[in-house]
Amino acid sequence: MRSKLHSGVGHRTRRAALACALMSSALTSCADEPAPAPLAPCSSPGALRSVVLSTFSFTRADPARGDVVDGFDLDDHASEAGDPVGCRQADFTSPEGERGVDNQIARLLPIVDSMTGGAFDGLIQGAVNNGQLLVAVSLDGVDDLRDDACVSVSFQRVAGSPFVGSDMRIVPDQTFDRDRGHPITQARARIRGGVLETEPFDLPLPVAALDARFTLNIRGAHVRARVGSDGSLTGVVGGGLSVSEFGDIIRTLGIGDAKRNAFNGALRIFADLGPDAAGACQQISLGMRFEARPAFVNP
Question: Is 62 exposed, middle or buried (0-12, 13-18, 19+ CB in 10 A)?
Fold first, then answer.
């Protein structure tokens, strides 16, 4: 993101930061839902490998093919427009041609871009580079980076002042400290053909941009990532965000009533997961792309 030398910049940047935070804040844990039981570690005594997120952004629809976007089939159903299973929202197709991809947040991103002057992705990346959004992913029990039937994956917030290279990404092999103010989230996974795949799990992800700080809460999260020979990860995370939590967060951000109501209305329109007893969907699907580079995490 580059600043422009006129008076509208501060307001635009602030709006972008707030939008970044609210889109990122979809990961707060539900007070009325019990915390999942800790996962038992895999029985294999394999190696522990850690990486830190170096890029993080929402997946966007292919400009040339508006119905193509990366993500996951979260409800095991390929919905067409008007299909009640997906609350009348048409699913996307993956870049590989697989139907049924649930990623309705991708339809909202142009709205967010118009609200933030296109600064949204830059704010997320800036938060990663300046240490506000430092998330480590650790793979435990790794016997083989190509094929391993049982790997324990943990996500945790870490603290430190990262060095950033000429590519404007965090330099690999740095050391960070575990942030004990945030919990560790675990998931079961496997590696097949060099691709890590997790079972569904709930992923709380703290996010900060400028003075806005929230926790994004991805329900039924899936992670798919290619594992590099050095243990680096390149992949996608997908899941559902609570529409009501979005509304609660938006009310705290100081966004004008008109924009807040318009955004809340759009969330309700595009919600496609978690139907209630009346059939109204209470969550909206998303996909996020990430890269993660090798790192060391102090216990």
Answer: middle
Enumerate the β-bridge partners of residue 285: 240
Backbone angles phi, psi at 166, to 5 degrees: -65, -20
pTM for this model (two decimals): 0.82
Q: Where do the structural domains in the chain lie, given as residue ranges?
A: 42-298
CA 273 to CA 96: how far, in whole Å?
Answer: 23
pLDDT of residue 99: 94
> Residue 235's pLDDT band (boundaries 50, 70, 90)?
very high
250 within 8 A of 237, measured Cβ to Cβ:
no
Q: What is the pLDDT of residue 97?
A: 93
